[in-house]
Amino acid sequence: MKPLVSIMSPVYNAMPHLHTFLDSVENQTYAPLELILVDDGSSDDSLSVLTERAVIMEKKGISVKIISQNHAGQVAAVNLALPNVHGELLTWCDADDYWTEDSIEKMVECLLAHPDVNMVRSNGLIKDETENPIRYREKENQPFLSNIFDDLFHERILELAGRFMVRTEALFSCYPNRQIPASTVDQNPQLLLPIASRSKCAYLNEELHVYCRRSSGHSSTKRSFTETMKRIEDIKQLYLSILPYCECDQEYYRKEVENMIAAFKKTLMQTTAMMARKRTSIE
Fold first, then answer.
1. Domains of the chain: which residue ranges?
2. pLDDT (tens digit, 9 = 90+) per residue, 99-118?
3. Which residue ranges traverse the bilayer (predicted)?
4. pTM score
5. CB 3.0 to 4.6 Å from 107: which of 77, 82, 165, 211, for a disulfide?
6. Closest alpha carbon to 165 in 18, 3, 6
7. φ/ψ of residue 6, rounded to 5
8. Quick one: fold of 5-215?
């Protein structure tokens, strides 16, 4: 019997891109699938669309569970989804991105062929709002199997939702209570780093995932100096909160967190000073 794959997706005001994501799930060549959707207090028609599409997807054999919460962010949404995961394998995707139709099948095949590996990642694309590819594709010479913990930790590998699949048992052995550390920054480091610290990761050099960069997305938000400094501190607390769940040199990586944060702050100060000089010269 083929393993059930659980898919998690937090949804917040995802119109008009939500249908593209749901289409990519519905059109997957792999079955069985379990789709867990958490509406994060959307003020647009996202919840109505989820409800309508769930009926159609259920008729096609995809199990769909919709959970609603007041707007609390992606990590809170993931923590609502995790207790409802029943699949042997788990992947997750933002509701404004999408997969190729054979993405899940190929990642499943890879993990089944390598039972000693607990995670797999694919290549992919970043596209703009006109669907033009702008970057993301990784180098051709990536090894098939590698320890990626250090590269993930230092963000030398993109930790985008949608390009990873993990064994559920491996994740929940790190988080027995099925809850990841809270953060306003991200959910991907919490889901990936503990597993990566314990297992090699397989790599599929195929463009199976598309990350869509939106002008209205949180990654495109322009922040003030104060807001950016707060976000840097939030990143620091996020990584420090993850380390206890990782099998790594705790002292070394705590120092690395401090080094990364110092570098972020230095870059911010230099950029702020440069912008101030430009404004002065214009005036």
1. 5-215, 220-282
2. 999 999 999 999 999 999 99
3. none
4. 0.91
5. 165
6. 6
7. -95, 140
8. Spore Coat Polysaccharide Biosynthesis Protein SpsA; Chain A (3.90.550)
